[in-house]
Amino acid sequence: MPTSVAQLQQWLQEPEGQCLEFKEAKQRYDFEKLLKYCVALANEGGGTMVLGVTDKRPRRIVGTQAFDDPGRTEAGLHQRLGHRIPVEELLLPEGRVVIVHVPPRLPGTAWEIDGRYFKRAGDDLAALSGQELRDMFAETGPDFSAQPCPGATLADLEPASIALFRDRWAQKSGDPRKRELNDLQTLRDAELLVEGDQVSYAALILFASRAGLTRWLAQAELVFEYRSSEAAGPAADREEYRAGFFAWQDALWKKINLRNDRQSWQDDFFRMDLPTFDEVPVREAILNAVAHRDYRLGGSIFVRQFAKRLEVVSPGGLPPGITPENIIDQQNPRNRRLAEALARCGLIERSGQGLNLMMESAVRQGKPLPSFAGTATHEVRLTLEGGVRNPAFVRFMERLGEETLRTFSTLDYLALECLEQGKPLSPALKERLPGLIAVGAIESMGRGRGTRYMLSEALYASLGAKGTYTRQRGLDRDTNKALLLQHVMKQGEQGAPISELQQVLPMHSASALRGLLLELRAENKLALKGERRWARWYAIPHNSL
Which domains does the chain show, CATH number per domain? Predict the structure, then answer.
């Protein structure tokens, strides 16, 4: 409702606080500062900013020449912040007054400008603290995607996108009768119309026309950029997809695939040919961003393609309780109604297995695991690396066979990846080792706490890599004892401390190394003199045996 003169007069009598901000701004007011104040007011629960009024009481109207075109100012605020912020002017005998109405932030969100979050501090602005941001993002609210979009109608949706959804839904459900539904009934049955056939935000995200999305939910767009190098500057290729997801999903993959180089290796008679970016993990990464981003924030999804790397950045941090460490086995869907619609047509699993598929694909293709490095409270950053690290490991996975691989869980893949990379195994991954031994994928060495695991000899042999297996497994016990004895003999009267002997056999644990040394002492080949840090191992001359 337009602000009345009586309402303005009432504001003039009230103290400046959370809901009111007064600025004299007789000649002009900086637009960038206006943006920051809008962010601060929204983060504090919304409020009103009045230009052309003195700041201190008793306040009086002095008039302002700032923002002479309120409609243009409102459009600029929407473009920069992604939120509709009404701007009006009152022409009074005392002068012109500009009033900016800032809506409150939604629960679980915070407004930002250029990655900075503001609040008011007296007569100035200050940055929100990390704890304040964490508290805001931890708030829970209703499912945004299930809410009706006030004013949106079926005319804002694209019939071709609804038809594509309907066809996939019929195929996924095995019910060809769904293809006979009209658009209205399709949306009703998919629960995408709510509260008396009002269009939900989920329907806009999936099926909106360009004009409809621009009008009601412009931040639901996706921006693609291709960069040929890491250098800053404009992208070599950029395209904005501002329409419902079904209108551009295939077009985006085709765009990425245009520059999807294939990596080839020749090893004897074996030739490996792999794409830098596999279609399944790329589509899953984009689906995750669309399904789980926070649409209450004004930012867009960005997909940035480099020669060997793909980045997907989506607004809103990980949901409460979800971390990069537990994300493969924990769920907290942010847009449940949207996820349910995507599950109906088979694009995602309700069990949230998108990241699992990305990880399994990376392991099978010898690529680094998907990374969440750079993820913060205001955005999720998912990186897919396309470079193959070890072609021999790809052959190793192929030798296991499709039938065996189909029985593997994501944790099985991660355990193999850790062994191949020499990483420590978590307790959850260690539990998968007996099953991997049973299918012949790995083998164990030693006993008890000193047990070690590695990829199996049979598979290395089938790849013609017996030398690699020997290097990974290490030398046999007698050979290791001979190496220790040879080193101690070279030290002569100086002897060798335990720290030095650990350098001879770096793959052995301290207990395993001590076991070898004790065997040599029992055989009268070595003697130990001194204690603690002064202890030294000495060779026993042959003539004293």
Answer: 5-137 (3.30.950.30), 391-473 (1.10.10), 477-544 (1.10.10.10)
